[in-house]
Amino acid sequence: MNLPPHSFRLVLALGTVVLASCAVVPVPPPPPPAPSPQPGAPAPTPEVSCSNPWRGYVVASDHNYAGIGAFNGSNRFMCKATPTQGIRAHLQHLRNYADSASTPSTLGAPFEPRPFYTEANFGTFLYHGAAPRWIDLNGRWAVPGTTYAQTFVGIYNTMRANVSLPPVDVSAVTIMGPSELTAAQIAARVCASINCADWKPEISPTAMAQLYIDEGILVGVRGDLAFCQSILETGWFRWPGSPTAIGLSSAGTAEPDPVMDVYFELQSVTGRN
Length: 273
Fold this sequence. Notes:
Elements: H1 5-21, H2 83-98, H3 148-162, H4 183-193, H5 205-219, H6 223-234, E1 243-248, E2 254-256
Antiparallel strand pairs: 1-2
Helix pairs in contact: 2-5, 3-6, 4-5, 5-6
């Protein structure tokens, strides 16, 4: 069959289009395999979702260093994604206790909400401005807590003695104010009091203490003393009664931490922090 010349040109053009549409698209190479753990390296701590409700214990990855919402039957347990957020929420809550004039806009940093505690109800908190001194937290932050502040202020005074500073008066020292200890001084006492291999947070004691100091400057709260409050609430950041650093047994059940000789806040009350 004879075709006119323009038909050959059309066929050739169509063939070019078909070939172009059938061109092979290169496939990217697969990602490299994850590196094998080094011999003797500690097993990674299983991640815990911050969506978890109160499960009866706190773990380091909750970034809740002050027992906030940690009581039997709680529906308001606080869990944060980073250490900074957990510390910020802790110190902002202390400012709420200490300062009746405080509002979400006067905290020096973005407000850190948690279940049932938002900017809208910050000023209606039951103890808003009711605890300007650390000792005023007794019976409020901790229940019954008759020696609550005395205990962690005692830890703080030991830190001060280690660097030749005089003790503070537990009956007078206020929640608001500047820190007087450095992060290095705080961390030195932590590692002298416990085996630092038992320290469970993902950042070092010095880094943790520095965050408390820095966030304390923003919100106007004594970060060094708040760190000592967290020592009491977390059992020197080891969380006694919580799963071990490995986390769960092969059966998927929590393995209790054998260290049980320090304070751990688990109050069966309502209306708590």
